[in-house]
Amino acid sequence: MKISTRKRLAALVTMGAMLVGMLAGCGGSSSAPSGTTGGGTATEAAAGQTTAGQTTAAQTTAAGNAQGKQEINIWHYFGTESIQVEFQKWVDEYNAQSDTAFVKVTVLPFADFKKQLSMSAVADSLPDMVFIDNCDCAAYSAMGIFEDITDRVAQFPQFDEYYDQIMATCTYDGKVYALPAESNCLGLYYNVDMAEEAGVKPPTNFEELKEFAKAMTTSDHYGFSFCAHPSEEGTSQFIPFFWSAGGESMKLDSEAGVRALTMFTDMIKDGSMPKDVVNWTQGDIPTQFINGKVASMVMGCWRIQWLKNNAPDLNWDVVPLPSDKVKANVYGGENLAIIKGKNVEEAFKFMEWFMDYDRNSQWNLATDEFPATEKVLTDPNYTEAEYWPAFIEQIPYTRARDVTPKWPEISVGYQTALQNALTLKQTPEEAVKEGQKIIDEALAK
């Protein structure tokens, strides 16, 4: 027993170190700081929550309110106070009606979350539940951190209504380890006044996108922008265009890879897209958009309310992503998982309660995300809401990044190709070959 325990700890240490270096955030989400992923710190915890590493009055109060109930600790990294408060509202409601459990929330800085999770696995100091980026879920499931809830969710009333693509992010080796708490996809946001002045309509395909970007460009602003940051943020914004061109995730060195990269490098060369996109995060680009420095941007639904709040007078709209051979988009968002062997019964009761469609859809609306079930396609709270139809109509063809513990390493191949091509260090043909080497090395391990 001691030998197997040592081996397991050694494996966790090794994999934990790898994950700390590689898991830099999976696309966009309202949950990360200021609606971004890949950096920053969480704001001060909302009332009733605790911040990791600190003892606060809220922490003391929360413990006192448990009144002998089973305490369920849940970690998240929701980086804006409004979202923290919204989640705490649901937790408070659950605690008030539960006779057996008391849920306590801990907020960790997004930049430290995965490191803390990996190291806590080694130290056997994990919480009972966590929210986790959906493209990271397989890696932690492979580590043996999450509870297998396959049999439990089979009885869940809406289990069969989840889209297969989003449920794939909750599944590893044929078993279910999480449920999709919130989901998102991308759209093309544009400045309506600038488009009217340029005399162009929103693009629907790659050729129109290039023409749109060029026509929208003036001496004062660029016509188009997307995130090409060397992190999962860049991968998640590029990969829908790659898929749309006919690409397969593990075959970047392809006609589709060259076509998608060429479209973007052409925009760099003709001046319709700023060279800075290789450094801009998903938090930087919306600021450029509302300041009038870029006329359009690829961005997720999680920016709807942010734009309303931060640019109330800006005349903007959003449309589905332009497509090529096929329509494509990418899922982002968070899954909710239970830690293996940690108060599983009570944790699942909270999961089942929180994931009820009516509650979960209200949570998603408040965070500018959507529940990944068929019901959302006919939910008037989304279909009749301002800006939302552009995202909802894309859900049927939105897909998840390939579900594999190796994805963080594979993603580096995309990031490398983007950086080399958009800085004009390499041609698109050379860049996809360089990126493919990294992907092949990851797959060979």
How would you characterize the overall build of this protein?
The protein has 445 residues and is α/β, with parallel strands linked by helices. It has 2 domains: 68-182 and 330-398, Periplasmic binding protein-like II (D-Maltodextrin-Binding Protein, domain 2, 3-Layer(aba) Sandwich); 185-328 and 402-442, D-Maltodextrin-Binding Protein, domain 2. Helix content is 45%, strand content 13%. The strands form 4 sheets. The protein has a 6-stranded mixed β-sheet. A 3-stranded antiparallel β-sheet has the order 9-8-10. Helix 10 packs across helix 18 and helix 18 (407-422) packs antiparallel against helix 19 (428-444). The radius of gyration is 22 Å and the shape is globular. Keywords: Signal, Transport. Residues 42-62 have a biased composition (Low complexity). This is Multiple sugar ABC transporter substrate-binding protein.
* Count of helical regions: 19
Summarize model confidence as the mean pLDDT. Answer: 88
Give the helix/strand class.
Answer: alpha/beta
CATH topology value of the largest domain: D-Maltodextrin-Binding Protein, domain 2
CATH architecture of the largest domain: 3-Layer(aba) Sandwich
Count of spatially separate domains: 2
Number of DSSP strand runs: 13
Shape: globular
Major β-sheet profile: 6 strands, mixed
Strand content: 5-15%
Helix content: 40-55%
Using only C-alpha atoms, the radius of gyration works out to 22 Å
Find the CATH superfamily of the largest domain: Periplasmic binding protein-like II
Low-confidence stretches: 1-24, 33-47, 53-64
Spatial order of the strands in the main sheet? 1-3-2-4-12-7
Q: N- to C-terminal separation?
A: 28 Å
CATH class type of the largest domain: Alpha Beta
